[in-house]
Amino acid sequence: MNNKKILLSIVVLLILGLSAFFFFINFNKTPSPVNTKPAPSRISVAYISFNKMYGIPLIIAENTGLFNQYNLLVETKATDKSPTKLLVANQVNTILNTPFAPLTANTEGATLSWAGTIFNDSPIVLVSSKEPQNIKTVSYPAGGGVLGKTRTIQLLKALNLDPAKIVLNEVSSEQIAMTTLTEDKVDAAANITKSDWLIFKKKNNSENNKYKLLVYSVEKENLQISGGIIYSKDFLTDNKTTAENFSKALIEATAWTRLNKEKAIDILANKYSIEKDEAEIYWDEFVAVTNNVTFAPNLDQAETLLQIIKTTNPKAETYQASSFISTDINNSLKNSGYLEKFGFK
């Protein structure tokens, strides 16, 4: 009997001892780290789908993890119509577009801010199978309303042609402009990008060997428009850090694209569902137009665009080009040495 009591006492002591031991271990155990990473900042962006140049930085930033790196949750909207209308309607926070779009919007009462430049737009060309003196009719895509017509006129003047003596046919897209040319409905197609013409020609090579690029747009006319990051003024005011991080992601995506040709081509070919040799044409042009880019909004260019708007919009007479430009992000990135690090000025 005594032995049983002794054995029971030992068992109880062992149980109490083990319980105390495990309590002590758990009490002193370092707690598991809590995930303190803040929720990602949301931003929505629209860009022009028919000009693939505008989508490249977004596609690369998403596929290389740059948006995740900057803790951004980015919603992209490709549109073949007007990204500006989506921004004015508060359906997106930002657009990749030409500064012509927000300047036009602002003269109509919207409040948009051009905050930075990622690339200079693709070279704008005029294509024809005829000698310049025999061009009588030209198709061109609107490309910003009055801007499309203005750039077409500049191309004709560069060929020493009198635009007043040529029939100008405005169409809705580059594809239609090129089709009207190849169907012999017009003598030339203008205000189209070099890369899109080269791909169009490649796809229809047997029919289009007779066509040639006659002239590039003249940069000194300030009509070689920048690919700008345009924010709604309210979003930029209330979300400066998010806007700056978004701009950084696009800048770094641009630098990555330039340095990683084969990987970038693979990503673009997959995204756009095109052949690699077509993706390479876009890559080649993207590298060309992102060479030595000044990130800061261009006030001289804005003033040139404003003068164009004034020809058709009386409301623009008292408008200041500087009122739709924001330099906060540019100054921050420039003063910190960030822009120079990634090849921007």
Describe the structure.
By secondary structure, the chain is of the alpha/beta class. The chain has two domains: 41-121 and 226-341, Periplasmic binding protein-like II (D-Maltodextrin-Binding Protein, domain 2); 124-221, D-Maltodextrin-Binding Protein, domain 2 (3-Layer(aba) Sandwich), CATH 3.40.190. The protein has 16 helices and ten strands. The chain has helices at 2-28, 56-63, 66-69, 83-88, 100-107, 146-158, 174-182, 194-203, 205-208, 233-238, 240-259, 261-272, 276-289, 299-310, 328-335, 338-341, and strands at 41-48, 72-79, 94-97, 112-120, 124-128, 137-141, 167-171, 188-193, 212-216, 226-232. The strands form two sheets. Strands 2-1-3-10-4 form a five-stranded mixed β-sheet, sandwiched between helices. The protein is globular, with a radius of gyration of 29 Å. The N and C termini lie far apart (94 Å). The model has no long low-confidence stretch (mean pLDDT 83).
Topology:
Blueprint: H1 2-28, E1 41-48, H2 56-63, H3 66-69, E2 72-79, H4 83-88, E3 94-97, H5 100-107, E4 112-120, E5 124-128, E6 137-141, H6 146-158, E7 167-171, H7 174-182, E8 188-193, H8 194-203, H9 205-208, E9 212-216, E10 226-232, H10 233-238, H11 240-259, H12 261-272, H13 276-289, H14 299-310, H15 328-335, H16 338-341
